Amino acid sequence: MTQPVTTFGPAHFLNRELSWLEFNQRVLDEALDPATPLLERVKFFAIASSNLDEFFEVRVAGLKQQVESAVVERGLDGLTASETFRAIRNRVRRMVDVQYDRWRRELQPALARNGIRFLEITGCNAADGAWLEGYYREQVRPVLTPLAIDPAHPFPQLLNKSLNMIVQVEQRRGRETLRHLAVVQVPRVLPRLVKLPRDDSSQDYVFLGRLIGHFLADLFPGTRILGYWHFRVTRNSELYIDEEETENLLQAVENELHNRRKGDAVRLEVEHGCRPEIVKALLGTLRLTEDDLYLIDGPLNPTRLMAVCEGDHSPELREPPYVAPVAGVLRGQTDLFAAIRERDILLHHPYENFSSVADFLEQAARDPQVLAIKQTLYRTGGDPRIVGALMDAVKNGKQVTAVVELRARFDEASNIQWAQRLEEAGVHVVYGLVGYKIHAKLCLVVRQERGGIRRYVHLGTGNYNPTTARIYTDLGLLTCRTEFGEDATNLFNLLTGICQFQPMRKFLVAPFDLRPRLLELIRREAGHAERGLPARLVAKLNALVDRPIIEALYRASQAGVKIDLIVRGICCLRPGLKGISDHITVRSVVDRFLEHTRVFYFENACQPEVLVGSADWMPRNLQRRIEVVFPIEDGNLRERLSSEILAVSLADNTKASGLQPDGSYHRVEPESGAKPRRSQVEFMALATGEAPATAARAKAAPPFPQVKLAPSPFSPRPARPTRRQG
After folding, report:
1. Which CATH number fits domain 334-506: 3.30.360.10, 3.30.830.10, 3.40.50.300, 3.30.870.10?
2. Is 439 a catalytic residue?
3. Would you list the domain boundaries of the chain?
4. What's the mean pLDDT in 543-559?
């Protein structure tokens, strides 16, 4: 009998960064899929580019710092930082080449056929040309600043991700003909797409950069324009704050935000066709190499293409509109506290309206029996209902505490603004524990009732942000269970006071006991399998990177535990390895809404336990953040989570892809004769009452169906980089 592997090496893990790039490829695949409505394809095209921007700002920037440091070490998969960087460069270049090729050959022509055109100024008729010249003179020219590059004018400090033009001009001085370079920054204050006036439903645009380029002679009188090319610099955008040496965290974050815009360059994107000597000069000035260069044959910042999706035009080019209803159990309920006392309430966003959470806060702010409200705020979006409810509660004499995370990446400025507004309104604002981001999502309402104090708790997997709650899939629980209220009270005391963590009754809290408890639950399933008892594990999350968790899953698989993982993004676990992960499948769903739910199901010998929470299985979540994972105690809700949410996600054979042992993803195909199933569409139908109830669904199909994988027609199959020997 073959002995199970007990020590796991690099061959058993996928590279974190390359796995993320495969996720972004799946996002891009939606833009490349003719079955996706056209304007939705444009959105995915823009999102894939925005994702890449952040990847370079944070992940690639960090890798480059590792390369420049004196520390040399290998990652989970055995690659060094330099080897990973080279693999990233090759993968991104393939991805970008495919992206822009499809833009030129498919997306742009399809948009034109549907009355959405991107025009060149030289091809415009006289009326459009006159309008564009007037727009340039009145709106654009006054905010332009041509910047010469010469000994008296050093190369300007260009802001992160700003669009710029490098201009080459020729000037006669006596008998000499001199060539000069200059930079023109495309102003951020103006729309990047200039929309031409039309009397019908057609939409014609000119790129602002092209408009400026057409009139460059106006900015450089007395010269001859030899050429101009757009370029864009991506900079390191990570914040570097030593909290132990910082007396005022708010001030420190504000100061670092100013530095972010001017961080070290990590990527240069240059318009295709730019002269090699000019590209070389740009690289040298920015202290970059050709490894950091990306030549772009198309719009340099595709995120601005989202403008063509704005407005109520072209409904036939979009997904059918969806207006989320109030959760069935809350329809007609005017007293949310009474509804929560009757039963635990599970909310599934965006299929069920997030307004119920805002209603809960607003009712608490008005209710004279409510004594105190405590809430964590990670990405608020400054919503007037959420933040406004906390401010109103102060006006109504309640004690209100907000634990605001200032370092929520790329939301720092917004969170600082709203933290200051809350403080001005009388809310007690705190910033949590030194050294840890506060990523937990919970709200505690303390209410005086006839029988004494009762505590109402909302816990979730997503942020208190109604805007993102319309596009992110998340779960929320409303409960007044005594043990949950006690745990929430103790957690807020930990975040705002001076005390040591004490194990809680129901909550699993990172960085204190979440990882040990998860490992214990995984090992328990392995023990059941070894004794011949029912053993099963299903987890739905955003990322799986943590080595101890992955190794525990491998050992559970070796013991015979059937493990199905639904991982939206990064996954460093290799499924399907003989003798190691034979019983593990990994799939990812990319669709209309961003999958963000975190649910963990443990069969536990026919006594299922289901956990929900804010934490992914990554070292940062388990070691460097305050996270809360909590059990679902109500049996009906456990059944709903397993037989509805997890089962339907596993049954998706339309928008799901399966991870292969080599790190590639293959689209899932329906079994022969099976009907196509799209999980997000089914969740919408369940929320609106257009689909059968959970119990009926559970009888109609096994709770965790198996699916067939097929090669994706869109994603190129990645090759695993070879690690150098020695």
Report:
1. 3.30.870.10
2. yes
3. 147-253+263-300, 334-506, 510-709
4. 97
Supply the angle between the helices 61-68 and 81-102 in degrees, to the nearest 10: 150
Both structure tokens of 385: 């209902």
Looking at residue 152, its pLDDT comes to 67
pLDDT in tens, 488-547: 999 999 999 877 889 999 999 999 999 999 999 999 999 999 999 999 999 999 999 999
User: Mean pLDDT across the stretch 636-657?
Assistant: 96
Domains 147-253+263-300 and 334-506 share a fold: no
What is the model's pLDDT at position 222?
87
81-102 helix and 16-32 helix, angle to the nearest 10 degrees: 0
Q: Catalytic pick from 348, 439, 583, 666?
A: 439
Taking the C-alpha atoms of residue 419 and residue 416, their distance in angstroms, rounded to an integer, is 5
* Alpha-carbon distances of 159 from 50, 103, 233, rounded to whole Å: 16, 27, 8
Superfamily in which the 510-709 domain is placed by CATH = Endonuclease Chain A (3.30.870.10)
Mean local confidence (pLDDT), 546-568: 97
CATH number of 147-253+263-300: 3.30.1840.10
Q: CA–CA distance from 157 to each of 38, 181, 183, 233, 667 (Å)? A: 38, 15, 11, 10, 44
What Cα–Cα distance (Å) separates residue 626 from each residue in 333, 433, 445, 615? 33, 9, 20, 9
| pTM > 0.85 | yes
Cis before 151? omega within 30: no
**207 close to 219: Cβ distance less than 8 angstroms:** no
